[in-house]
Amino acid sequence: MPQHHIPDGLPGKIQHFIDGAFVDSVSGKTFDVLDPVSNETYVQAAAGQKEDIDLAVAAARRAFTEGPWPRLKPRERARVLNRIADAVAAQDARLAELETFDTGLPITQALGQAQRAAENFRFFADLIVAQADDAYKVPGSQLNYVNRKPIGVAGLITPWNTPFMLESWKLAPALATGNTVVLKPAEFTPLSASLWAEIFREAGVPDGVFNLVNGLGEEAGDALVKHPDVPLISFTGESSAGQLIFANAAPFLKGLSMELGGKSPAVVFADADLDAAIDSTLFGVFSLNGERCTAGSRILVERAVYDEFCSRYAERAQRIVVGDPHDPKTEVGALVHPEHYAKVMSYVELGKQEGRLLAGGGRPEGIDHGNYIAPTVFADVAPDARIFQEEIFGPVVAITPFDSDEEALSLANGVKYGLAAYLWTNDLKRAHTFARNVEAGMVWLNSHNVRDLRTPFGGVKASGLGHEGGYRSIDFYTDQQAVHITLGQVHTPRFGAE
């Protein structure tokens, strides 16, 4: 059985952080937070309601309209962001330990996420200092230039998979550009989010610039989306929640950035480097316990190499180390929560009717409690199968054969999602042509999911709205105001003149 590692120094309760102070909910309401190995409640968190969101937004609004933060020079904000990055990097092991305890992610992968969180702050610190805005000249007659201005209070709603890193992905650009924020982290995983408050305070972020309200999506998240003083909402989560947020933000005409679900294809052609493709497609769906939006959860394999691919893939999947999330040898840990475990298991049972089971299919041997699912591989999955069409968000993969480039493209595009795609081929022309035609916001050619922070991140179809990453994040979190100046004679039609 996996060990039950409990970190030292866990908080006695998890509170909101509003206007520079840790506070309980006005109502006193709380909710239970479980750890995914024992599924026992280890802490109570304050359950934010509309009145708590109102207080947080009022603090953020005050800090925006009256405080120094939006008026600091970019270099001054960058110094604060770099201090935040230093603090995150200095406690990366502690962050990883807490994240692993709260989410069930393997400790080695949680450590990588903590380090990436620090890098997000460094990246946007650099970007705002180097930022240049456009000027357009008509020589001798006109000059037009662009002012970028922070927008106001940004509402940030983050998911429970790699929560600390995904929070940093929104917090860094929102704060770098001079906005103030209200963060509503996922209710399953509030532990690491509570660390931001001290990190920011020590780095010199003024009170009210960063506010944190815990709670359920239907309560705290809903109130944040509907608050008239929150002009921006950045949301990462599932597509159905995204649709609801879109509808609720519509009456206020809010700026929306939404990174939603995925059912991303990994397409393996017969001319691919099969060893590299197997390594990558295993990592692509079983890393982070399969709880990742960009998981390559459908593998499409050309018929000539299909049988070899399936047998080699299944053999490797059976050897993946499932166990204690805190053990550095663990490759797949415990799923985040019993509700999510039940959902993923229902897809595993469904898959036994819809495909040929090659590996996994239930609990790993010798582990009789906790949210553990053995890496599960289904082959011969038809394109209309639910396990081919629907996002499972766990260590479950569907493998399907194809006979031609056209069929591969049709299979790849034949779902409602369009977040990522992975393509394995040594034919240069095919690689670039297929990449252009696949309906995905991001494509990796002969590569696993490696992000360059300068590139746009986002999906098409049901996978999202808008892009973040690099300058796209700066665009989202700023208003771009055009200023026009006429040089020389003004030629205006003279209405009403003699």
Uncertain regions: pLDDT < 50 for 5+ in a row? Answer: none
Record field, number of beta strands = 20
* Number of contiguous helices: 15
Task: Round the mean pLDDT to the nearest integer and report it.
Answer: 97
Can you tell me about this structure?
The strands form five sheets. The protein has a seven-stranded mixed beta sheet, with helices on both faces. The chain has a six-stranded mixed beta sheet with strand order 9-8-7-10-11-19, with helices on both faces. Strands 5-6-20 form a three-stranded antiparallel beta sheet. The protein has 498 residues and is of the alpha/beta class. Helix 2 (74-90) runs antiparallel to helix 4 (107-130) and helix 4 packs parallel to helix 5 (163-176). The chain has helices at 50-65, 74-90, 92-103, 107-130, 163-176, 196-203, 217-225, 239-249, 274-286, 303-319, 338-354, 386-389, 405-413, 428-437, 471-476; strands at 16-18, 21-23, 30-34, 41-46, 135-138, 142-150, 153-157, 180-184, 210-212, 232-236, 255-259, 265-268, 298-302, 356-359, 376-379, 396-402, 420-424, 442-445, 464-465, 478-486. 38% of the residues lie in helices and 19% in strands. The mean pLDDT is 97.
What is the strand and helix layout of this fold?
Layout: E1 16-18, E2 21-23, E3 30-34, E4 41-46, H1 50-65, H2 74-90, H3 92-103, H4 107-130, E5 135-138, E6 142-150, E7 153-157, H5 163-176, E8 180-184, H6 196-203, E9 210-212, H7 217-225, E10 232-236, H8 239-249, E11 255-259, E12 265-268, H9 274-286, E13 298-302, H10 303-319, H11 338-354, E14 356-359, E15 376-379, H12 386-389, E16 396-402, H13 405-413, E17 420-424, H14 428-437, E18 442-445, E19 464-465, H15 471-476, E20 478-486
Parallel strand pairs: 7-8, 7-10, 8-9, 10-11, 12-13, 12-17, 13-16, 15-16, 17-18
Antiparallel strand pairs: 1-2, 3-4, 5-6, 6-20, 11-19, 14-15
Helix pairs in contact: 1-7, 2-4, 2-6, 3-4, 4-5
